[in-house]
Amino acid sequence: MRFGRATALGLAVLLAGLSLGAAGTRDRTQGQKVLGKLGRAVVNVATGWMELPREVYFTTKDKHLGAGLTLGLMTGVGVAAVRTVAGAFELVTFPFAVPNDYEPILEPEFVVDASRTDVGQFSTKRRAP
Questions:
Q1: Residue 60 CB coordination number (10 Å)
Q2: Cα(77)–Cα(81) distance, integer angstroms
Q3: What are residue 55's phi and psi, to 5 degrees?
Q4: Domain coverage including residue 6
Q5: Which residue has the higher pLDDT, 128 or 6?
């Protein structure tokens, strides 16, 4: 029974994080921004591993199966690590407006968003055809 309650609470926090984070940071109160950052952090720590199969899929779709299974796998490991570490950083810093005004560190905010994750100079975002 105890495990069931903890699981339900964890699922509620994940869903709250997705709903608060999806609304963006404009026109929200300070408390909503803090809770949105906390939810985003928990979700990204819990789902960072999902970047690995996503990158294999996107690389296979953009190039070919061999590239997906090699380059996509290596890229996926790196992007998964970046998302998980970014989530951990946001988890530690959620009470503070770091970066500016509680903005997300990564785009897209969550691994379940449709576009590819942008990790800066080594962006894995899909290019328009």
A1: 16
A2: 6
A3: -65, -40
A4: 2-122
A5: 6
